């Protein structure tokens, strides 16, 4: 097992990894920007190294400084967390060159899965169902029209370099195609420096369902029951739950099996997530794979009574996966992402937290790097806490979450807690009848009222 | 004796102050007192208080405070710190058998190499961005340094 690891991240995920390492008896090195000198991750790690100014491109994305920090502190491995460098294949490549273990998959796998079109083609070969669409990059409008006519509208144009909803356009008729094609190409080029698009059939009112998988370096693989992530705004997840009210045992088993097969087929190692779109007839289609730990991983941990990060660290040191194949859900879990933002306009609300009380009690887990008196820096994302509830049934988990959020007090910055309470009391949500357009609909209703 | 001083002469004095780069001039005679002071350009941005026009009588004392502050600060301003632009290992010489690039008390020029920071097996020469005298070397040879860490203090005057 490792003696010391470096965490190349900040905020709640850095703390989450520090906790896992401490429990395993591993020393931790935090890296921080000048804006994060007073952030909890740099306070609570065993060692800390300043790696640059506030701007992420010069600190949390600064590969030479992060690698140097690992070398001078004699850390053996680096955990990238999520965001920042976690999906940049250059990072594991350089780690390897410098004799450091990257806590994630290999650079080559990351390259394949990071290219959304290539990932789609690979998954087709791995027998995962993909949506009807183009066989590769669509270079021009003529080809786009041909494909659209073949698969039928609506279609979705997607950037192969994509992420976060950029370079993505839904097209409902031929007359809009050319304009949208050009817009998506331009947007993709300016966001990722790559205008390449591919086309998929668009599923109306689909559900975003994802499967967590873990595979050790000795070939043992295990996939878990689904996380339901359909409650999104602009492709950003807000609230997640597991299990989904929509997925039955038969589909679940099929999804788990397909993901395990695909993971073995591409020879993937470490933690990963396969994202699917599920239509109203419960057909599931591969969308993309995330080669890192997800923000919403705690709901799987709570519902299964496991620790994914500890296991990820253990297997990276060469150990066998020690989860049993008989693991099953023990109850229901929900996560609410608490962002420092205006609940109506969604504008970020950075600043000083003057007063802060988090709820506690049985079945409530808080993953947060916030504390009273902390100045939330404006340079990074607005997530200040994840409140996770766990209870024997969905109804109890919802009630527990509502109670917890009502007791959460944040003074000084605005949060989206009112939005969460609104979702949690919506009758469609309570009945489990929702899809990826749920939140947009809820918000437009509110405007109309 | 009655002293007569007119506007022209005052204006001359102000010019002199500026020419000689003086901060303050005070002249006290039996029945006459004049005090002219000038702010440091550097300070102006940060510390010059906005004075109401009616507060003429307070003006002189206010200015004096500023000058005192300026003097305090300018002592600090004479001390310049060279900070590390990267994370790495600090070396005072180009290799273990060579003499250090600089010693305490040594006069240094702008762009003179002061040390090496090794980062990912690359040797990065760190140069001084000021002229002055090495007041202190704040990191031991071979020790790790983080971004922004103070390496040298340099007296610039």
C-alpha termini separation of chain B = 44 Å
Structural domain count of chain B: 2
At CATH level 2, the architecture of the largest domain in chain B is Beta Barrel
Strand content of chain B: 25-35%
Give me the Rg of chain B, rounded.
24 Å
Identify the biggest protein-protein contact and residues per side: A-B, 18 and 11 residues
- The structural class of chain A is alpha+beta
Oligomer: heterodimer
Indicate the CATH architecture of the largest domain in chain A: 2-Layer Sandwich
Output the number of helix runs of chain B.
3
What level of helicity do the residues of chain B show?
25-40%
Shape category of chain B: rod-shaped
Could you tell me the number of beta strands of chain A? 21
N-end to C-end Cα span of chain A: 58 Å
Mean of all residue-level pLDDT scores of chain A = 95
Describe the sheet with the most strands of chain A.
Answer: 9 strands, antiparallel
According to DSSP, the number of beta strands of chain B is 10
Count of DSSP-assigned helices of chain A: 15
Q: Which topology of the largest domain in chain B does CATH recognise?
A: OB fold (Dihydrolipoamide Acetyltransferase, E2P)
Q: What general form of chain A does the structure show?
A: globular
Q: How many structurally independent domains of chain A? A: 3
